[in-house]
Description:
This protein is an alpha+beta fold. It is elongated and about 75 Å long.
Amino acid sequence: MMATQHASHQSRHGAPSHNANGDPVARTLLSRSGIPILTDCALAVLARTATGWFAPSLAQRLCVSVAHGRVHLAGHIDDARPMAGLKTALLRLPGVAGLDQIITVDARRSPAAHVAPVRSRRFLPG
């Protein structure tokens, strides 16, 4: 199964929202004009670190890159459950304008596929 998603934080006027969330550290990293001081290389390091913290099981299986403030995730994974928390964490990084994902989830090797089916007993009258 191949899934491509594009998540973007933009206002009606198309200006990126940098999601400082009132954080004093994030405010110091952003200039007054709203243009991030962090370069794409610095954002890539932050995104890679966030991937290791919020989805350690996926950290070695995902390729993380940043271009023009947009984080790009690509790779093959077995379990998509940790992705929800990772997406939230990446979009909250200061200076991130959006998130692009090209991720293949291998359903044949997913943890849910290894769970034994529940067998129910049927009670027949009689």
